[in-house]
Amino acid sequence: MANPSKPDWEALAARPAFAELLAAKRRFIVPATIFFLIYYMALPILVGYFPELMKRPVYGKINVAYAFAFSQFIMTFVVAWLYMRTARKWDAMEHALLSSIETPKS
Amino acid sequence: MLLAKIEMTPALGMFLAFVALTLVITWLSARKATGSANYFAAGRSIKGWQNGLAVAGDYMSAASFLGISGMIAFKGFDGFMYSVGFLVAYLTVLLLVAEPLRNAGKYTMADLLAYRMSPRPVRAMASLSTLMVSSIYMIAQMVGAGGIIKELIHVEFAPAVIGVGVLMLVYVVFGGMLATTWVQIIKAVLLMGGAFALSWMVLGKHDYSLTKFFEAVSHADYAGTTEPKNLLEPGMKYGAAVNIWGPLDFISLALGLVLGTAGLPHILVRFYTVPDAKTARVSVAWAIGVIGVFYILTTFFGFGAATILQKSAILTESGAENTNMVAPILAHALGGEMFFAFISAVAFATILAVVAGLTMSASTSFAHDFYTNVIKRGAESAADQEVKVARITAFFVGAISIGIAIKMGPTANAAFLVGLAFAVAASANLPVILFSIFWKRFNTTGAVAGLATGLASAVILILLSPNGIFGKKGAIFPLENPGILSIPLGFLGAWLGTIFSKRDPEAEAKFAELNFRAQTGLGSEKASSGH
After folding, report:
1. What is the pLDDT of residues A30-62, one digit of tens each?
2. CB under 8 Å to B208, separation ≥6 — which residues?
3. Does any CB of chain B come closer than 8 Å to the CB of residue A49?
């Protein structure tokens, strides 16, 4: 089994490179999560409490409600794409961090 | 006796072809289904795109394909909210849960929860919650399956449910996660094919013009059989004019959808089938692509049905809305007998793939969390014993679900059961998953309290809701969807349980370890060699 012999986790977690990795992740994940939850929850809230606004046409017969709902799909694709792109940088940081601590194993 | 009444229709032929194909896969997988990592996690050898398709196949249930298209055809925009919520939910999975879960766990979500806690109480509660969510979800699928199969190939409800149950058990017991994965992948491809074909035909009815299509939807009159109404307008089910609690119920539904998916055990276990967290991430991206396109297409075969089918065609004999049959009836109207047969077979494949995934996650949790870690206190000596217990559990879970589904009968409300499963997942599982990963102070009491509060509040509120034991008139809780109350209660329970119990130095000390492993993948479970 690939069980590394008990590393000193406290020491590992205290490394500056790890703190940088966490901070980098936080910089993207926290705002992105707040954004998508607000953008998403705005749909049912507007639909429920401002129905007249949501019934207004925006393009041909398509109204605000459908356009906003459709935009949620685009929003999901875009946030997911941004996450995938940003995560590649974390992978590089993670790789550097892990290779600096990897002890030679058989 | 029973068989004598079944005619050999094209639909039955395609059902049988699908069953034959999946049994071949199961037979091929069976040889590899030895040892825990192979049986429970397909040897962690599934590729990213494959797992993405399997996640999609595991997720897009009969409730999605048949239920949503029917709901949109009758209720317009309000039904479309399910399509939106089911997709956006994957951002919660992608951003917050998938990678840490893969890095720190082995087979189940409880691996993550129990990592720095006292394992026995946490695993016991997490296993209970997993079994609850999976079996409620499964009963919903079984009830739906029995009804649909009855209409599609004229097999009675009880034998149809038993047939589905037996097939699902064959996949799970003999083929394990590998067979289940491939059944889900094939189903996802078939479902996407069916959805594209159906959408294209609907658009064809409107001269392949989106303008004309939306024009027709805004004056949907069910082929001239009703007064025209604008299905793009919200509020037909959840509008304040229909029900004073409607808007709040709609918000509660939306919240349950977006947070529930990241707590569904049968989705979470899929991330253990890939080699590492990066592949788990790639598989969520694939799933988002596939699931997103599918739910956009519900625009066409949902709204479109209301412009093409006569109202009487999609009502039951007693005049009730026959939501589950809208898509197959639409397929029949547009593509004739063979296309109807194809869409029916897709619906059947959908049901089988989802129930197989559910049985797999329930039996994995029981064997790995409850048997190995609670009863045997984590004694690793019995590795093959774990698989054996899982196979026996699968058999019992299957038998009990079949029994309950038959007892509840074809009139049971499947949407109510699916809603309950999402509510329990969001209220019980998600708070403790997030706190485990992100909150150092979180401890055993908090985890058990969070799971128990979330589970109990979701179940109790649903029982008191208009769908519950007192019916619409006597409902004590006015909302059909409990999420808006039960999700905060789940978080609150986990938080209060933690701050009102003694600090747990051991759990806090292990946070560094969990955090480092979850965020970097150091020492995570590796793919097994051999295939």
Report:
1. 999 999 999 999 999 999 899 888 889 888 889
2. none
3. yes
Q: Which pTM was predicted? A: 0.89
Please answer yes or no on whether A48 and B258 come within 8 Å at the CB atom: no
The answer to whether B373 and B114 have CB atoms below 8 angstroms apart is yes
| pLDDT tens digits along B311-364 | 877 887 777 777 778 888 898 889 888 888 888 888 888 888 888 888 888 888
What mean pLDDT comes out for the span B387-415?
A: 82
Chain A residue whose CA is closest to B242: A48
Nearest to A62 among B81, B232, B278 (CB): B232
Q: Count the Cβ atoms, other than its own, within 10 Å of residue B118.
A: 16
Judged by CB atoms closer than 8 Å, whether chains meet at A48 and B246 is answered as yes
B121 touches chain A (CB under 8 A): no
Of B90, B255, B516, the CB nearest to A13: B516
pLDDT digits (tens, 9 = 90+) for B422-451: 889 999 999 999 999 889 899 999 999 999
